[in-house]
Amino acid sequence: MWLPIFGLIVGLVFGLLTDIKVPEEYANYLSIAVLAALDTLFGGIRAHLQNIFDEKVFVTGFFFNIVLAASLAFLGVHLGVDLYLAAIFAFGVRLFQNIAVIRSIILKKSNTNSPEKIEKS
Amino acid sequence: MTGITLIVGFMIAVQFQTIKEPVVRDTRDTWELREDLINEKKLELQLINEIRSINAKLDEYENETSESKAEVLKDTLKELKQEAGLTEVTGNGIILKIASVNTEILLGEEPGEVTSELLQRLVNELNLYGAEEIAINDNRYVNTTVIREINNVLKMDGNPLNQLPIEIKVIAKDASTAEKLFNYMKVSKSADEFFVSNLLLNVEKPEKAITIPAYSKAVTIHNMEPANTNEGGDS
């Protein structure tokens, strides 16, 4: 369970230290990709807590969502329609739902007094 | 899973860095904007003039017969020589004299010595305030001139400058620039700095005809080579 968090921290530190900057015109795509990644991540956590976690689904979903979101934004730019809003909306709603489910599961677990469950990721 | 979170972390960090870039606000007021505008206009004018003269020269090159081509080339050479400081120049300018402070004021202190830093600063200041040509003790100051101490003797391009007073001739663009230069130099920081070193910097009134000699030595150029002449004539 701690390995993914460790990975997140390492990724953050690595990104901050390398001082990489995305050009202004691509910042939009990256923000959407980040949103998609976060959505997938929380979906993964939810699935994990519901014991229906599947590595393959998670990994493919992660990359597929990112690519889809970025290409949607790209298409939107070229069509002159703010299509990235659709991605933001979809991911935003899903993000909230996932977090709500995660919260309710954790609450349930703490109510049944079995919060400590050793699970492998 | 770890790999994915690593990527997520990295993406978030990069996004952070991208967004973090502070927006530089334009805090100039009307007056500063106007001044900037004037400066830019001046630059534009200068560039346009340059383009015009270069175009004229180009026309000359193209239109004239082969005999007068040599003439044009000679003209260009002359101009370039003038720019490089290889010709004698006469014009409006001022004369600065570096002398020692009176012994009465010194009260037993040693009379001052001119250091390379002082002189370099003075030359920089002169250039800043519109000097076109400078000669120190009748040694022409050109782009490649070095002022430095060799064995504790101040030398400019190898000519010693250890005898006071030192005379600096400066030519400005025109009479009004010379006047301005004179006024600037009267209140310049250099004068104070010279005085701290027990030296006096006397600025003399602008004169109409100051003659500055040509650079007497060969200009040594290390990092420039003639362009490949075989492929000339493209432009």
Q: In percent, how much strand structure appears in the residues of chain A?
A: under 5%
Helical content band of chain B: 40-55%
Q: Rg of chain A to the nearest angstrom?
A: 17 Å
Sheet bearing the most strands of chain B, described? Answer: 6 strands, antiparallel
Shape of chain B: extended
Instruction: Tell me about the largest β-sheet of chain A.
Output: none
| Count of runs of 4 or more consecutive helical residues of chain B | 7
Structural class of chain A: mainly alpha
What fraction strand of chain B? 15-25%
Distance between the termini of chain A: 6 Å
Strand pairing plus helix content of chain B: what structural class? alpha+beta
Helix fraction of chain A, binned, reads over 70%
Distance between the termini of chain B: 61 Å
Which second-level CATH architecture of the largest domain in chain B applies? 2-Layer Sandwich
Number of strands of chain A: 0
- Domain module tally of chain B: 2
* Contiguous helical run count of chain A: 4
CATH class of the largest domain in chain B: Alpha Beta
Interface with most residues? A-B, 34 and 20 residues
Membrane topology (chain A): Multi-pass membrane protein
Transmembrane segments (chain A): 28-45, 57-77, 83-102
InterPro entries (chain A): DUF1290
Main location (chain A): membrane
